[in-house]
């Protein structure tokens, strides 16, 4: 940074991490080139004061994809062929706003009407430092936090 008044705010969105942790897994669908592009782009910024990650960190709100996203944001993760990617961001400089996909915890086999948002339980497990309190989330009873 050039002076004490400079502050770099970076924003990324809609990462849509999938269940497969790397390209060798048949469940893997998130974009490795996109992750590497974001990583390289953010590396050009000096002293990021805060990284905002908004909306749809995961594709289906499953625990594994959210934990993988956590690994990519705060450390590095294997991406296949012996390669790793990750931002290594300090957790105190990251703020995450979950999207509708991050609360989409229904089983794939359920009927579409039953595959609506159910809870942020998996999100809160994967991001304990960024938990979303359950109180006041919904009065209809659709959201449950355990």
The structural domain count equals 1
CATH class: Alpha Beta
Number of helices: 3
Structural class: alpha/beta
Mean of residue pLDDT? Answer: 82
Measured by DSSP, the beta-strand proportion falls in 15-25%
Q: Which H/E pattern describes the elements? A: EHEHEEEH
Q: Major beta sheet, specifics? A: 3 strands, parallel
CATH architecture: 4-Layer Sandwich
Rg computed from alpha carbons, rounded to a whole number of angstroms: 16 Å
Strand order of the largest sheet: 1-2-5
**Terminus-to-terminus distance:** 43 Å
Low-confidence sequence ranges: 136-146
CATH fold type: Purple Acid Phosphatase, chain A, domain 2
Global outline:
globular
Q: Percent helix among the residues?
A: 10-25%
Q: List the quaternary state of the chains.
A: single chain
What's the total count of β strands? 5
């Amino acid at each position: 940074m050039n002076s004490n008044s400079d502050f770099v705010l970076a924003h990324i969105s809609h990462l849509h991490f999938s269940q497969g942790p790397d390209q060798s897994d048949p469940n893997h669908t998130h974009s490795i080139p996109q992750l590497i592009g974001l990583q390289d782009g953010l590396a050009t910024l000096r002293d990021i004061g805060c990284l905002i990650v908004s909306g749809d960190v995961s594709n289906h709100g499953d625990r594994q994809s959210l934990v993988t996203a956590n690994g990519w944001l705060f450390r590095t993760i294997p991406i296949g062929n012996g390669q790793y990617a990750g931002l290594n961001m300090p957790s105190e400089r990251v703020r995450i706003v979950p999207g509708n996909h991050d609360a989409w915890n229904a089983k794939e086999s359920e009927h579409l009407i039953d595959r609506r948002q159910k809870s942020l339980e998996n999100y809160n497990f994967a991001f304990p430092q960024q938990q979303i309190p359950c109180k006041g989330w919904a009065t209809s009873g659709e959201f449950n936090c355990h």
